[in-house]
TrEMBL record:
This protein's name: Malate dehydrogenase
Species of provenance: Metallosphaera hakonensis JCM 8857 = DSM 7519
SMART domains reported in the protein's UniProt record: malic (SM01274), Malic_M (SM00919)
Record flagged with keyword Oxidoreductase: yes
InterPro entries, A to Z: Aminoacid_DH-like_N_sf, Malate_Decarboxylase, Malic_N_dom, Malic_N_dom_sf, Malic_NAD-bd, Malic_NAD-bd_bact_type, Malic_OxRdtase, NAD(P)-bd_dom_sf
Keywords (A to Z) from UniProt: Oxidoreductase
Length: 423
């Protein structure tokens, strides 16, 4: 395998723009540009919605970051975040057939960030927020969802939470666990706070969830609760709505728990084997990268029945790349104005159902990223839910959305292969 720096030096980046419209003669410019393009402009002046039909906007997403929380590297700044955003754009295109534009911006103030992204709305069909530090990311997402009329998504929140739910649905089927499960949520960053919200929306009892941060168990009597209320109201809400068992120690949190969802600091040995042994035939998701909080074999040795990580070289990779390409394919195809938790749940259920049709086992609870058909199913489920929720401008049956997604993803891959075949 080539060194990543060598690869990017060789290609000088991961992306380029190629035209869709052929240019065969000098006369074509008068149609593509001036004077012919003026007719297209006038059509959009009469009806702004036609920008989705007469331009590429219908299939475009902005990947926006301030570079404050990039991978596990922290606050690297907008310039250094660009390789990650380019990679994300490549996944958007290859997995979802979506044209995504990396847009790191040099602004730290959340309201300035919101103003800049809001001003981009006329150019895009959706916004993907990426690698924005917590708790700022919660505020930015909420305000943008209220302010713009296109879907806004924060992948570190909704994408990760959706992948966790998809995997958890099938892990529970294998282990006979239900919505009354006792769940330990290890880590209180963007991914796990969003997961608590999504699992609650799905039907899990928040009083049976126990969230653990760097200081220990979140509970209603924590000494830092008042400062949390002012500095991170999203985490505060989790603290006061979960842990109905009134657990205050980490050992008691793990005792007789059914499920562990860890999205915290890289391991190994962040999660101790003795904690796993104290659980009840547990489902263990250790999602930190590049090293999970506990290695899968160690978790299995301690009694885990199903184990997932964030890595592709272990079974059961729970990664937001399973979610965001299909979600955006679905919202763009339905021309949805929003993406909400109900749509994420629909997508997660579609992924879980796809895996069940293939045959789930302790080593296969979610589709792999190379199972292309899974993205068609997810996209069509999200699009159908957008219609049901009243957000869709395009209203079709689920099968029609599935065929649309299949055609667009296959066409995208065909074009990529054609370029690759030319060297």
């Amino acid at each position: 395998m080539m060194d990543p720096v060598e690869v990017t030096l060789l290609y000088q980046g991961k992306l380029q723009i190629l035209p869709k419209v052929p240019v065969k003669s000098y006369e074509d410019f008068s149609v593509i540009y001036t004077p012919g393009v003026a007719q297209v402009v006038q059509e959009i002046v009469k009806d702004k919605e036609k920008s989705f039909q007469l331009t590429s906007r219908w299939n475009t997403v902005a990947i926006v970051t301030d570079g404050t929380r990039v991978l596990g590297l922290g606050n690297v700044g907008p310039e250094a975040s660009l390789p990650v955003m380019e990679g994300k754009a490549l996944l958007f295109k290859y997995l979802g057939g979506v044209d995504a534009f990396p847009l790191p911006i040099s602004v730290k103030d959340p309201d300035s960030f919101i103003n800049i992204v809001s001003a981009l709305e006329p150019s895009f069909g959706g916004i993907n927020l990426e690698d924005v530090e917590s708790p700022k990311c919660f505020y930015i997402l909420e305000r943008l969802q209220e302010r713009v009329n296109i879907p806004v998504w924060h992948d570190d929140q909704q994408g990760t939470a959706g992948a966790i739910l998809a995997a958890l649905i099938n892990a529970m089927k294998l282990t006979g666990k239900g919505l009354d499960s006792k769940i330990v949520v290890f880590g209180a960053g963007a991914a796990n706070i969003a997961s608590v919200r999504l699992l609650r929306s799905y039907g899990f009892d928040p009083k049976r969830m126990i969230v653990i941060d760097r200081e220990g168990v979140l509970h209603a009597e924590r000494r830092d609760l008042d400062s949390m209320m002012f500095n991170n109201r999203w985490k505060y809400e989790v603290a006061v709505t979960t842990n109905g068992l009134n657990v205050t120690t980490v050992d008691d949190a793990f005792k007789d728990a059914d499920i562990l969802i860890a999205a915290s600091m890289p391991g190994p040995n962040v999660i101790q084997k003795r904690w796993i042994r104290s659980m009840k035939e547990p489902v263990v998701f250790a999602l930190a990268n590049p090293i999970p909080e506990i290695y899968p074999q160690d978790a299995i040795d301690a009694g885990a029945k199903v184990v997932a990580t964030g890595r592709s070289d272990f079974p059961n990779q729970v990664n937001n790349s399973l979610i965001f390409p299909g979600v955006f394919r679905g919202v763009l195809d339905s021309r949805s104005t929003k993406v909400d938790d109900e749509m994420v749940i629909a997508g997660a259920e579609a992924l879980a159902e796809f895996a069940r049709r293939k045959g789930i086992s302790s080593n296969y609870i979610v589709p792999r990223m190379d199972e292309q058909e899974a993205y068609y199913e997810l996209a069509s489920a999200v699009a159908e839910k957008a219609v049901e929720r009243g957000y869709a401008r395009v209203k079709l049956a689920r099968e029609d959305f599935r065929l649309m997604a299949k055609g667009r993803i296959e066409e995208s891959r065909k074009r990529i292969r054609a370029v690759q075949s030319e060297g």
